[in-house]
Amino acid sequence: MSRFHRKVKMISAAGLLTVPVLLTGCSILSSQTSESVDAPPPILESAMIQAAEGNGEMVQTEQMTVYLKDQNGLLAPVSMSLPALPDLTFVESSLAALVSGGAYSGYMPDGFTGVLPQGTEVMDVTVTPEEKLAVVEFNSKFTEYMPEEERQIMEAVTWTLTGNPDIQNVQLWVDGKKLNEMPVNGTPMAQSLTRGIGINLDLGNHLSTNSSPVTVYFSDESPAGEQYYVPVTRLVEPSTNRVESALSELIKGPESEGLEMVLTTATLLESVVTGEDGTVSVALKDEMFTEGDPIPTELLQSVVLTVADNSGNADTKVQITFNDQQTVIGTDEQNYGEPVTKPEYINEIGI
After folding, report:
1. Which residue, 165, 89, 161, 157, is CA-closest to 129?
2. How far apart are CA 326 and CA 324, in angstroms?
3. Angle, CA 261 vertex, CA 255 and CA 262 arms, to 5°
4. Which ranges carry the GerMN domain (predicted)?
5. How many Å apart are CA 93 and CA 292, to the nearest integer?
6. Which pLDDT value is given to residue 59?
7. What is the distance in angstroms between the CA of the first residue and the CA of the last residue of the chain?
8. SS3 118
9. Is residue 260 over pLDDT 60?
10. Sequence-separated (6 or more) residues with CB below 8 Å from residue 333
């Protein structure tokens, strides 16, 4: 049973093809800024009135992860619980959180904002679990964005929705019509959108017809001083070991302004081995750390997140050895020498 709470319709549909990384309109920077909202939007005001007439409390949704634009113009996952809005399902609420100046704008952490144009409304979402497909219909306000914002909008919607276990493919509709390309810059969408489009795309110097995408996780700090992770997709030469290629990119460090290195360029990736039970064992070496030193959590978690996102299974267990030590204690006091999985919720940043 899906966790969506639930007006979501269950239907049957034909199978869909996975879309590769799209390179048209690939700017990841948005010129639109969040507008302040003096009064609560009508839909949120209605929820507040209902709460006042009831038990005085607004019902919180289940915790969700949405992809918001940070202070550097990059998309980052942010996990939060939001008040339930009238007539919106869980998955519809997650999309409503992406609207700039929308119903949830007052709940965004400092430095983060939604990327959908102000006034965008989620008219309907239909989820087909058998096809792992979400069909999303927006109103016409969805089309009122600048050309350079197009790719980021696609990424934010796709990565937010595909964080749900019942969704791997996304179709976009506007006012009753299916979009085969984005409405402003014409980025093609073929049958559906998947995480194969990448996120915060960094083309680098490796762009070729046979390039392969990998997604790595760097670190950043919010204006309030809270550390969080930012995914970046890079194009690399095809390899038989995608996880190893991704970790090599993680070691190279970020190229986008504001992102912080999580591994040093002196770090050696000694091996990446997948066991019979699917556990991925990663052996690292860096003389900067001596035996017994706690390893920064952001370093270890970035490795776990990167491995999980490139292994083909988000639930992959990851085991890390460091400088030949089997016990690897992070600054969060967790032992990463034992198999761990990607956290269910990433970047729980306070308002």
Report:
1. 165
2. 6
3. 140
4. 91-183, 243-331
5. 45
6. 62
7. 31
8. coil
9. yes
10. 294
Instruction: Give the model confidence (pLDDT) of 186-229 as tens digits.
Output: 999 878 999 999 999 987 665 566 788 999 999 999 999 999 99
Look at residue 98 and tell me whether its pLDDT is greater than 90.
Answer: yes
In whole angstroms, how far apart are CA 26 and each of 33, 148, 186?
A: 19, 8, 12
H helices of 36-138, in order, are: 42-53, 90-96
**Does residue 233 contact residue 198 with C-beta atoms inside 8 Å?**
yes
Whose CA is closest to 75, among 45, 103, 118, 113?
113
Question: Which token pair is 195?
Answer: 């995480």
Percent of the chain with pLDDT strictly greater than 70: 81
At residue 193, what are phi and psi to the nearest 5 degrees?
-100, 140
Both tokens of residue 311? 């292994």
> Residue type for 98, please?
L
Report the C-alpha gap between 128 and 13 in whole angstroms: 7
Give the span between the Cα atoms of 139 and 126, in whole angstroms.
15
Residue in this structure with the two tokens 């929705």, named with its chain if needed? 161
- Three-state DSSP class for residue 202: strand
Task: Give the global pTM.
Answer: 0.83
Please report, rounded to a whole number, the percentage of residues in the chain having pLDDT higher than 90.
69
Tokens of 244: 């190893």
Asked whether the beta carbons of 3 and 62 are under 8 A apart, the reply is yes
Instruction: Say if residues 321 and 284 touch (Cβ distance below 8 Å).
Output: yes
Q: Which residues are CB-neighbours of 322 under 8 A, at least 6 positions away?
A: 284, 285, 286, 289, 295, 328
Which structure tokens are listed for 283?
């052996």
Cα 217 to chain centroid distance, Å, stands at: 11
* Tokens at 351, concatenated: 């308002």
